[in-house]
Amino acid sequence: KTNDHVIYRELRTRPGQKYNKSDIIRSIRELGQLGFFDAEQITPDVLNANPNEGTVDLAWNLVESGSSQIELQGGYGGGGFIGTLGLSFSNFSIQNLFKGEKYKPVPMGDGQTFALRLQASRTFRVYSLNLAKRVQWPDDFFTISHSLGYQLYDFRNYNIGLFNFGNGKANSLAYTFGISRNATDGGRIFPRGGSNFEVTAKFTPPWSVFSNKDYRALQNRSKELDEKKNIQGLTPAENVELEDIDQERFRLLEYYKIKFKGDWYTTLVDKLVLRSNAEFGFLGSYNSAVGNVPFERFYVGGDGLGNFTLDGRDVVALRGYDNQSITPYAEGANTPDGALIYNKFSLELRYPLTLKPSASIYGLAFLEAGNAFNNFQDFNPFQLKRSAGVGLRIFMPAFGLLGIDFGYGFDEDLKPQSVGQGPSGWQTHFIIGQQF
User: Fold this and answer.
1) For a surface tag, which of 60, 233, 247, 315 has the fewest beta carbons within 10 Å of its beta carbon?
2) Within 13 Å and on the Cβ side, how many CA atoms surround 210?
């Protein structure tokens, strides 16, 4: 079903060019990265060699594989039901959108990505628009992306401890700029070489610049009431005052968020592959008087599955520890507040058991370390929570990526009840629909 021009634009072997092995290798890589074909069966045949003319024919034999996905999930978290419905077609054809005969079941074949995703609960709505384009400089592995998103949080008697105001609204209008360079080899499921880097920067407008509010006075009063709340509790009138103050501070969210992620793949011997990974994230504010927003924070530890993420949080996996347990806790709190800074490092040895189109299976052993902090004064990239373990991954077109990990945490996590209890110990993690 894939149209020829989608294949032609990925080929580096063009008629009339001199034979070049590196062009063939690059073409194999690009066709495998499309995700439309079985990467293990992309093997060009050299045919009709003509010594007199000095020419050869290259036959690219491709076996198509499924690349579209449907997502349907629901869960209870943060005091309410959250539902998600998603459809993703990664080989879409928008030019055939109004041609009824092309629907099988949707118009396909032009290599375009078309996705619909609705995620909603009674407290929030999300609207977003994304545009990405591959560029030729510094080289043609780079992609630049732009995203514009608007989130409206509408809280009504939503007193669950995540925010100081249970009634009111918070608005987030943010632009995200991303630069990525994907130069991995061997297909998307089991890369064997190369690297993949991604840097994103998310910004909101600095709303406080255009306001006459005394944010410093609001912040000082909020801290005063928070301290009293943790020590002796607040009167009903003070609770209302604290809600009103934080509603004023965070009615229009202002922040910037920087994230970096890098993966390196190296084939050591035969099919044994080493994956090296480094990640970093930082959430900052323009105006210290406004303070750091209670949204968009980093929650580190565990399997990394998103679960309840309506507050824009980044859930970061760190195997060998409970979910979100490597995240700072406020004094007297039973749930983490989220971190402003995190870093993480991984080493993973992978070996494939089978890489057939019907199912790709590989085993792995890993070393991992990371931590989360609430400010740069406490940030120490060498103060890490360490773990090690083994795991298994299975990729099937109908279900996506599934897996299980058994990890041992060598250090104490940050949960208040864990202080003085020693290492985290053995943890079991189930992986669904993600790869790390």
Assistant:
1) 233
2) 5
Q: Where do we find the tokens 């608005």?
A: 171
Confidence of residue 326 (pLDDT cuts 50, 70, 90): very high
Convert the pLDDT of each residue in 368-415 to its tens digit.
999 999 988 889 999 999 999 999 999 887 677 889 999 999 999 988
What pLDDT, in 10s, does the model give residues 80-132? 566 666 677 777 787 877 888 777 777 888 877 776 666 655 556 666 778 77
